[in-house]
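Working notes for the structural subgroup meeting. M.R. asked for a predicted model of this chain before we commit to crystallization trials. I am recording the input and output together here so anyone reviewing the notebook later can reproduce the run.

Input as submitted:
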Amino acid sequence: MDSVTGITSDDRLKVSIVPRTDERKASITVNTSDVRLATHADVPAAVRTLCRAYATYPFTRHTIADDDNGGRLQRFNELFISRIGLEHGRVWIADGGAAVAVDDPRNCGGGRRLR
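Returned structure, recorded in token form:
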């Protein structure tokens, strides 16, 4: 697969993601100028966006228990963004939280190793 293109949960923002290869790093192209690295203050908006995006996604429905699935998905996204993305990788946010991308440490060259 050469690239992935998607629309955010509110259909306002088109995002194209080109995966990493040995020759080049992954790149993200967004059709807005409001893309920046997220901070801890952005976590609630980022969590809301990811929860909407993955609420009916087959993989998360399969891997996150059905009992209180919405609450579990919210907690998973909070942990993933704050404990992995912000601490060890990168989190990008756009358009006030309408789009979110999380790079894990393997894609960030120089991120601290998870223990």
